């Protein structure tokens, strides 16, 4: 990061980084969640236990997730899932949904993020 030239403090000039801080924050969150010993790796898809699947499906449709993924990767948008081993735990999957929530400013509550991730897990990842 470059120090902000107009500032005498140690603040950094984030504007020149564009969306990088948001992307990095999401990846750090996803990695942090997955690295907690008692959470993502040990529990697997148990983090989705009790998730409201109907709510997840409703939120995916409401926020037009499929349309956004289609714009990003083309085709039917499903190529965005399972990107070369990048998401290999249920915790990382939930973290990526949280990253979308943050990046797109969706305003989802934690239980809503879990519901969306549970639907994606059911339909694409199938973590046990």
Q: Any chance you could write out the topology, listing elements then pairs?
A:
Blueprint lengths: L19 H16 L1 H7 L9 H10 L2 H9 L16 H14 L6 H16 L3
Helix pairs in contact: 1-5, 3-6, 5-6
The count of DSSP E runs of length 2 or more, i.e. the number of strands, is 0
Structural class, from helix and strand content?
mainly alpha
Q: What does the oligomeric state look like here?
A: single chain
Report the sheet with the most strands, covering strand number, pairing sense and barrel closure: none
User: Averaged pLDDT, please?
Assistant: 77
Low-confidence stretches: 1-17, 31-42
- The string of secondary-structure elements, in order, is HHHHHH
The best one-word shape is globular
N/C terminus separation? 40 Å
Describe this protein's structure:
With 128 residues, this protein is mainly α. It is built from six helices and no strands. Helix 1 runs antiparallel to helix 5, helix 3 packs across helix 6 (110-125) and helix 5 packs across helix 6. The longest helix has 16 residues, at 20-35. The termini are far apart. 26% of the residues are buried. The model is unreliable at 1-17 and 31-42 (pLDDT under 50).
